[in-house]
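This section describes the prediction task in plain terms. A model, or a person checking by hand, is given the sequence of a single protein chain and must write out its three-dimensional structure as a string of tokens. No templates, partner chains or ligands are provided. The sample shown here is typical of the held-out split.
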Amino acid sequence: MSTARIKSHLFKIFLVLHFIGLTLVIGVRFASFVIEHATSNGTLQVLAQGRDLMGDLALTLTAPGFWLTIVSGIAMVVVRYGKNVPGWVWAKVALTMAAMVLALTRVAPALVAARKWAHVAAVQGYRLPQLHNSLSQVTVYGGLVFTLILLTVPVAVWKPRWKSRG
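The expected answer:
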């Protein structure tokens, strides 16, 4: 088997893994919308259970999916381009890094806080302002992370056009 053929097969494997990672990240985001809708108007106990479920999904599916997307993306670039990395890759790297920084510094702590305050609210029997603040942060920063991830798609799709202009 030739080196080119091996590279082609490796690239395809990494591409499949990349799409699996993206599917996990995007799919869990949509599942979180559904969970949020289903639990936000329920009792405080149901709200706390919804927050637990979303936290578990983030830890078990979103985070591994995000890392799988990043690692497989890097592997595809290495297999396809080696040391001659085109400029459009750096645009994807910048968007991904921005999403990662926001996810780790804003979304994750807000998710933990929302989970904590949902349980405190369930015990105390009323909604706390801290719960509302945490949920607002999760919504805003989570939406930004999701948007940044989605913005990487056009960069990947339109890369040939950027290449021909350069």
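For orientation: The chain has a mean pLDDT of 89.
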